[in-house]
Amino acid sequence: MMRRFQTMALVGAVILGGCAGQVIGQTADSRKMAQVNPAGGEDHASPFARRGLAGKYLSSHFAQSQYDWNVASRYVNDVLAADPGNVELIRRSMILAMGTGNIDLAAQRAKELIALDDDTGLALVILAVKELAANDMGAVQETLAQMPEGDMTGFIKPVLLGWAAAGQGKLDTETLNETTIHLYHGALIATFLNDKDAMIKFTQAMIATGTLSSGDAERAADMLAILGDYEEAKLLYEGVFVQDDSNSRVAEKLAAVKKENGGTIRDLAEPLSVKSVQQGAAMALYDMAYILYQEHSDSSTKLFANMALALDPSLTDAHLLLADTLTRNGRFEDAIAELDNIGPDHPSYLEVQRHAAELLAEAGREKEALEKLNKLFTDHNDIEALIRIGDLYRSNESYGDALQAYNRAAKKIGKTIPEQYWHLLYARGMAYERQGDWNKAEADLKAALVYRPNHPYLLNYLGYGWADQGLNLEESLELIKRAVSLRPTDGYIIDSMGWVQYMMGQYSEALPSLERAVELLPYDTTINDHLGDVYWQVGRQMEARFQWERALNFSEDEKVSERINHKLRFGLEGMKEVKRATAE
Predict the structure, then answer these.
(1) What gap in Å lies between CA 249 and CA 425, rounded to an integer?
(2) Packed helices 456-469 and 473-486: angle between N→C axes, nearest 10 degrees
(3) Across all residues in the chain, what is the average pLDDT?
């Protein structure tokens, strides 16, 4: 499915032209100037702001290069007022307006552009979105009929036409193609129109593609669950859960289909949340935004995510996608403001606020992040917020504080930690291990493994922890081999397997494992050090010293560097003598 859409980022670049991208060759000084007043403003937003129309034109580009589209929009509209027939300025004004969520101005500019220019694909989409919002389905169909051929047309036009027809009570999906997203929207439109035969047809066609991503599989499972095919839905949900067993939403759906609980499924299944044509079309626009986000076409992502929100302001996924896009471009304040659009009465409010706290921490405002998380617990009894507090401390290597937060959460839960909070056991186990309390760490990790027996990183952490203690080496190797089978290209897990094999004296088995790990993670100190050790044991001493030199070059830990220097001087046999002399 993704190969079909690999050109989407190029499409976005063509749509947006020179006004969409980052400024190439931007200097450190220009970045510093942008940070003087991130909110913009004529006096401080750029070094060009006081130089008349030319200055404002340059300022709009400067502000956009900093991903500050609000300021960029204000400047370009100032320039456009003096040159109202300039096609490129109209196009830039339209793009910036849509990218800041101003659908009214964007649609006005779209009409102006359509009257003056032939390159109107994006303008027609924006105009169609405005007409969808006004519930004028006939106008939507007339507008989309004018769209020129192209990749964007091929993706979005058939889906929007399908939803416009649904707004007239008709099932018109003839122009949909065979991609999973189009087939899903065919099923979604059929669900909206209560056409069971079409639901079945599109769902079966979607599954038959054989190229389902995790998201596609969950959507197909939702459709099967609605249709009452619980066994097939269960198989798909289980496949998704294997890929991401921290997905609580899928866990709830899986539990519901196992119990054949139709009521719960109806509450959870995404297709039944679509109550209007506008919501369905918003999901289609979000899908395009998500594809563009995956292709790192962030400016185009903003456009389509805001189009989705123009039709369905409560579409949480679109707000989250915009926040992630803003974060990726260093606009933490704007990302947090985007999340604040989701109010306390929204089902996702707590999850979104936790994400906002993470953004605060990423922006270096850890005190505010902790205050926000503590408030979530105080005001909403949100145990998950306490766990996130522990995670924040653990990420900063404040393991004692992390354990206080984790234990506070565990006490609030009660005597037995249920499956819902398996990740608390995992996180607390890691914190105990870092604190040097292996007995408590082992107990938590084993308890977590009962709930998540196929979690690759949990398997690896427990297995490596045993090996590090010189304990249960056979069982440790078995756990890590299972982890490797689940994540065959993860260099850290492959290193763990090689190191356990090394500790068991299986040097010939350890060698290819550690060589593969270094191939995957060539700049990791520990992995290079491990490979050096196994080279020494198999008699390849020159290569061993080369790997230790690499490990030393990448090391940022004084004690680790000292230990590697000893090996470079004395070799592994000499290291044993040093240890013996130190002990005496």
Answers:
(1) 20
(2) 150
(3) 86
Structure tokens at 497: 């397997």
Q: Which long-range contacts (CB under 8 A, 24 or more apart) does 301-305 make?
A: 301/12, 301/325, 302/69, 302/99, 303/12, 303/15, 303/16, 303/95, 303/98, 303/99, 303/122
Q: How far apart are CA 244 and CA 238, in angstroms?
A: 10
Which pLDDT tens digit goes with each residue over 360-396?
998 889 999 999 999 999 999 999 999 999 999 999 9
Q: Which residue has the tokens 């929100």?
A: 309
- For residues 285 and 307, is the Cβ–Cβ distance under 8 A? yes
Q: Is 224 exposed, middle or buried (0-12, 13-18, 19+ CB in 10 A)?
A: buried
Q: Please identify which residue in the block is written with the tokens 């994400």.
A: 355
pLDDT at 283: 95
- DSSP assignment of 113-158: HHHH-S--HHHHHHHHHHHHHTT-HHHHHHHHHTPPSSHHHHHHHH
Q: End-to-end distance of the chain based on CA atoms, in angstroms?
A: 65
pLDDT tens-digit map of 242-274: 777 777 788 888 888 888 766 666 677 777 778
Q: For the whole model, what pTM was predicted?
A: 0.73
* Count of beta carbons in the 10 Å neighbourhood of residue 175: 12
Contact in structure between 452 and 458 (CB atoms under 8 Å): yes
The H or E element containing residue 450 is: helix 438-451
At residue 297, does pLDDT exceed 70?
A: yes
Strands, E assignment, 213-298:
none
Estimate to the nearest angstrom the gap between the alpha carbon of 283 and the chain centroid: 17
What pLDDT sits at residue 48? 52
Range ranked top by mean pLDDT from 205-219, 322-336, 398-412: 398-412
Residue 146's nearest CA partner among 173, 128, 163, 166 is 128
Check if the beta carbon of residue 97 is closer than 8 Å to that of residue 106: yes
State the DSSP H helix or E strand holding residue 554, giving kind and residue range, or none if neither: helix 541-554
> What is the Cα Rg of the chain in Å?
28
